[in-house]
Amino acid sequence: MNSDGTSPREKIVGLLNVKSVTKSQIFDQCLEVFSTLKDVLSEMSNDLNEMLENNGSRRVRLEYRDRGKFEAELKFADDVLIFSLHTDIFQFDREHPVWKNPYVKDNPYNGYSGVINVYNFLYDSLKYNRNDDLGYLVARMFINREKAFFVEGKRQKKQITALFGKSILSREDLVMFVESAIAYSLSFDLLVPPYDMVKEATVGEMNTKIESSRMKTGKRLGFRYNSDDVLNTEERVQ
Question: Which of 65, 84, 80, 185 is CA-nearest to residue 128?
């Protein structure tokens, strides 16, 4: 028997019940949020296309595509953002700063979260099925059972883990999340890879044409990539 008078099996059953209910609640919240996010992406692409057309930029358009229950795609210029809702529920590691927040300290189940990841790919990587090309995680959003949230990613405005649990995720928060990811990707340029990385090519790669070959392309191919390696225009000027 445990100190509280329960048997080990009773404790196991109790934990399974609590965790199962918690994770089901989180998953349902995340599905609802992701559905709203898809609406935001569709509306934003229409609004921006109208603004572009009014400014005489008819050659540049945004294209939204629903890729299924757990994915959505937004194309703009030479970039594609893929929004992906992970089907699993996560807990933060013990070194994560979220554990300093009383909201999680007082109730560890508040720290269980679903995750929406945002990856940036080159449009040509998808168009030409270049399966070895690289995409980059530019942002991710964590959502718990109460729809409390915070985000990680360059230029994201809701990154302070101390505020986790202070507010409920709104449509306006999703709009800011998407806008920041687009702005980041537009300033995250494709760099020429180091010469030594591309100085050799096989006959097969040439025969299948570079556009559809296994020769990797990525915005930071050959360079170290991290979340702080892109400066916006204002930061460069300063």
Answer: 80
